[in-house]
Design a protein that fits this description.
single chain; alpha/beta; seven-stranded mixed sheet; six-stranded mixed sheet; 22 strands; about 20% strand
Length: about 550
Amino acid sequence: MNPSRKYDAVEFQRRGYAMQRGDDAQSGKVVQWTGLEITGKVRCLAPELFEMRFLAHLDLRSNCLSHLPRAIGELENLTYLDCSHNCLEDLPKEIGELLKLRDLLLNHNKLRELPYELGRLYKLRKLSTDNNPFNHDYPRDIQQLLMFLLDNLQVPPIPPARKWTDLDPTPDAGYIGSGERFTVMTYNILCEKYATRQLYGYCPSWALLWSFRRDLILKELNLYSADIISLQEVEMEQLNSFFAPKLQGLGYEYVFSQKTRAKMLAESEKKYVDGCAIFFKRSRFRLINHHTMEFSHLAAVEREGALDMLNRVMPQDNIGIAVLLEVKGLTGQLRSAPSPPDILVSNAHVHWDPSLRDVKMIQTIMLMHELETIVEEAIKERQRNPALGVRQIPLLLCGDMNSLPDSGVVEYLLKGQVAKNHPDFQDKCYEGYLARLNSSRGTEAPSDTPPVVSHSFDLSSVFDKEHALDFTNHTRDFTGNIDYIFHTSGFLQNRSFLNGPEPDWLRDYKVMGFPHPHFPSDHIPLVAELELCMKANASSAPGAARPPSRSRPT
């Protein structure tokens, strides 16, 4: 018999294997098993194997496989893969897509090289490669090997430029546009001490180096050239030695405050504590005053008889800062206004831990209470009309709120109030503090309504539900929107915003998270263009507003 025809004979037909009874498959019964062992001198693997995306354990040892199909990358839930004692001559780069893989056995094969994509397997804890005729002397330590491979992996091409979305320029009802526009950016730049291999093992080590990332960050700041820049996680040493000199040379002034713990450290250690910074262009704004809000200090004032305030809020050293700015270089109707308009700009970095949602709530409530006090003092000092309330000085609130859009924090900011029994308070006892806040503001709820805590600002979000980005923070373990630009409704109106990175590019190049050689932080910078608006009155019709002038790069 012709050897090439031997399998055509009936007596030599290959056996078929059923992983599930036919009637079970037709009824849609869910497969419960997640492990599979294939042995018997197998030379090739059926395509149907790679449709079993539920597999977590795949044992292919002691066969005669010379290659693994590229479709191996489809088995996204694999944690264990044994290909030992085969005849493998190479590995497909798609093996680097098995991101859940923890054990990979490749010993006793004919491998001469390992694909660089293998370095993407950041969860890998066991890798056996003995008895292979490698052309390279690979590191024996698994972490060093993964780092070597990842560091030599080809960098994808530069991603497409992020696109701007222009919005309807029609002013809100009751307001007229002034034509005075400015751009604002908020950006958590991921300070040096947090950018570790343990947290970001999917990023090449050279792309985690501060000397590399800081230049990319500065490039982004230059690219968007925002009139106001709010930065979080800025180390004092990096501010003084790099960002401040560079941005001052570009026409910016700045205000900076460190996290509270810096006060308790020696000078040699203090310089490595991060904080928040606000940069603003001297040509557009004049600094009137600035403020720092230390949430741990505010909690200490309220700690008497409040164990949760003492034990949960006070230990966290997050801060917020604020600058009161006078708008310069006005033209049109604003130039003839009785007094030049002011803007209160705040930059906050709220606590990160998801298990401390109550702390996030209290820190945000403290922030808004302090901002109201700042505006009330400014109204007196700037001789504004107190009867018009705090909304007459527009608020621009930027920052890393470490809270999702459906959180109590964002509900409180956008709705102006939140129930005292909101789930995000986690049944912790802050009643005394919240009652004192309401009493000081004269905002106690009527007895027949649910008790709430409120603020007096009428805020909108640049990235509301209609214009939400896919994410503002993107890592291997979390992807979501936690950074925001809020602004007073009416007096400040959103005219355009910068979209996020191109989703198709991220998918095509299998970017599992940031930092990345093209993205220097685990956050992306948020950028928007806002317009100063005025209350409409009998002497200023909407048609009198001058055409807007672009302040953002095109």
